[in-house]
UniProtKB/TrEMBL annotation:
Lineage, top ranks: Bacteria, Bacillati, Actinomycetota, Actinomycetes, Kitasatosporales
Example of a GO MF term: oxidoreductase activity, acting on paired donors, with incorporation or reduction of molecular oxygen
Keyword line: Oxidoreductase
SUPFAM superfamilies for this protein: Bacterial luciferase-like
Name of the protein described by the UniProt record: LLM class F420-dependent oxidoreductase
One Pfam family recorded for the sequence: Bac_luciferase
Domain Luciferase-like: 8-290
Record-annotated membrane-spanning stretches: none
């Protein structure tokens, strides 16, 4: 079991994210994960810096902790050739600590370049498959071209390659994406404790790590924590079918206007009770995930790091599946 910390790139500026990554390393986390967004989910979050620049600064300021995109979309806003180069460079400057988390993307971030965003999920999966083929091709070294249904590559070479290519973890919300993760990825990435996702990944031949984000909000009291999560992270309750489709933060604000504090308390671990954090994390472990990402929506990151070091680290690492039930 490895434990990671989600850097909230939509809620903090780049300098603060670097500082938090250093704190996460000192608190004992195995890795930090960060989304690769153009927009925040809600306007009142107020931030969305360029993830690759922030990761480069984190690599320079840390020594041990792993780095992971959670996740990047290598199909619309970026061409996969750019991501192949970016990931290879980050793997080099981090001495092999980088994991490339990829997914089929959200309209929120991909529509901004004016190329549109595919309406059908199968087309998004086709795009992601081609993107992964291109990335893998370029990581072999040498010049390559590619002529796919959606994507093309013209006589391209990534000159600076690490000794070993980065691990690729593919985000999945259903069986088709889980099979894609097994075929082209080295690991699985998900946001819900669905045992069927891990099972589909493994049945398709996947043998790598399985990453999952655990929703939580730390504060010295439960109400303060829940209110903070309601203000900035209520979008997490909309579900992936909504999260992938809405185009701008104002749409997420409207779509979540009826979310209540009690809804947050039912979904998130809130406040100072370590047992509640274990309770929320346990279903992910039962589902087969072995890389748990603490997604803290609370107002005090430093307080959470202290809490994690004192009360959570050992408990999280000791979690084991409760039988075979979903």
């Amino acid at each position: 079991m490895q434990i990671g910390y989600k850097l909230a790139a939509e809620a903090f500026g780049p300098g603060e994210l670097v500082r938090q990554a250093v704190q996460a390393e000192q608190a004992g986390f195995d890795f930090v994960e960060m989304s690769d967004h153009y927009h925040p989910w809600l306007d009142n979050q107020g931030h969305s810096p360029f993830a690759w620049t922030v990761f480069g600064a984190i690599a320079a300021r840390t020594e041990r902790i792993g780095l992971a995109t959670g996740v990047t979309c290598p199909t619309v806003r970026y061409h996969p050739a750019v991501i192949a180069q970016a990931a290879a460079t980050l793997a080099l400057v981090s001495d092999g600590r980088f994991t490339l988390g990829v997914g089929s993307g959200e309209r929120l971030n991909e529509h901004v370049v004016g190329r549109g965003f595919p309406n059908s999920v199968p087309e998004r999966h086709e795009l992601l498959r081609e993107a992964l083929e291109i990335i893998r091709l370029l990581w072999q070294g040498g010049y390559h071209s590619y002529d796919g249904k959606h994507l093309r590559l013209d006589d391209a070479r990534v000159f600076d390659l690490p000794p070993e290519p980065p691990v690729i973890a593919v985000a999945a919300g259903g069986h088709q994406a889980a099979a894609l993760a097994a075929e082209f990825g080295d690991g699985l990435f998900a946001t819900e404790p669905k045992k069927e996702l891990v099972s589909a990944y493994q049945k398709a031949g996947g043998q790598g790590p399985a990453y999952a984000e655990v929703p939580m909000a730390w504060a010295e009291d439960e109400h303060t924590a829940a209110r903070a999560a309601l203000e900035t992270s209520r979008w997490a309750l909309t579900g992936w079918k909504v999260m992938s489709e809405l185009p701008n933060p104002v749409n997420f604000d409207a779509a979540t206007s009826t979310v209540r504090e009690e809804d947050i308390l039912a979904h998130f671990a809130c406040g100072p009770d370590a047992a509640r954090y274990v309770e929320v994390a346990q279903p992910f472990v039962d589902a087969g995930f072995d890389r748990l990402v603490m997604q803290n929506a609370g107002p005090d990151p430093d307080g959470f790091f202290d809490f994690y070091r004192r009360e959570l680290d050992g408990r999280m690492r000791a979690l084991t599946p409760r039988g075979t039930e979903a």
